[in-house]
Amino acid sequence: MAKLYFHYSTMNAGKSTLLLQASHNYRERGMATYLLTAKLDDRAGARQIASRIGIAETADIFDAGTDLFAAIERRRTEGPVACVFLDEAQFLTREQVWQLARSVDDLGVPVMAYGLRVDFRGELFPGSAALLALADEMREVRTICHCGRKATMVVRRGPDGRALRDGAQVQIGGNETYVSLCRRHWREEIGDRPESLSD
């Protein structure tokens, strides 16, 4: 039975690596997959899902105006699709998450969405909030803070290296901009915790 999956984490947890590996596993068994990624994030090049460890695949792109149900239906006219893999799921709109859910329910196609849960302010992305509400299964992709605890938050650093507390929710960047931290150290970075309590 097809399901909508949400694989979530902070930055640099290996979500794209896991997506590409899972897609490869399907293809290795002769089953076709359909890959999608956000037009907004083209750091690896247009139409690319790329991992920090150096693997990449070409994908169709989506933006806020893309009808994902129609895109999946269109792709199925070219041949069977065993699974849809979508990267950068935090950039989905609520309506697009419903389109993915309808693809699962009405077309019988499993959808695996990978993305960030929260932004640098500790707030849910709209796409992630909708996926947390609608996904049949959720899987946390874990990464660690510099202290060794599980990282669940991310800070955005400004040009001076200091953690930012305000700004647009979306700013594309990598290790030069974002750092994944546990909640305790995230609070410390944004000035919500006395340094005297740090360890």
From TrEMBL:
Residues involved in Zn(2+) binding:
C145, C147, C182, H185
So which domain of life are we looking at? Bacteria
Q: Which family does it belong to?
A: Belongs to the thymidine kinase family.
Q: Where in the cell is it found?
A: Cytoplasm
Entry's Gene Ontology molecular function annotations: thymidine kinase activity
| HAMAP family per UniProt | Thymidine_kinase
Q: Which InterPro entries does the record cross-reference, listed alphabetically?
A: P-loop_NTPase, Thymidine_kinase, Thymidine_kinase_CS
* Catalytic residues as annotated in Swiss-Prot or TrEMBL: E88 (proton acceptor)
Traced from the root, the source organism's taxonomic lineage reads:
Bacteria, Pseudomonadati, Pseudomonadota, Alphaproteobacteria, Rhodobacterales
Q: Which UniProt keywords apply?
A: ATP-binding, Cytoplasm, DNA synthesis, Kinase, Metal-binding, Nucleotide-binding, Transferase, Zinc
Q: Where does ATP bind?
A: S9, T10, M11, N12, A13, G14, K15, S16, D87, E88, A89, Q90
Q: Quote the protein name from its UniProt record.
A: Thymidine kinase
Enzyme type, top EC level: transferase
Species assigned in the record: Defluviimonas salinarum
EC code(s) of this entry: 2.7.1.21
What's its catalytic activity? thymidine + ATP = dTMP + ADP + H(+)
Q: Tell me what gene encodes this.
A: tdk
The UniProt subunit note reads as follows:
Homotetramer.
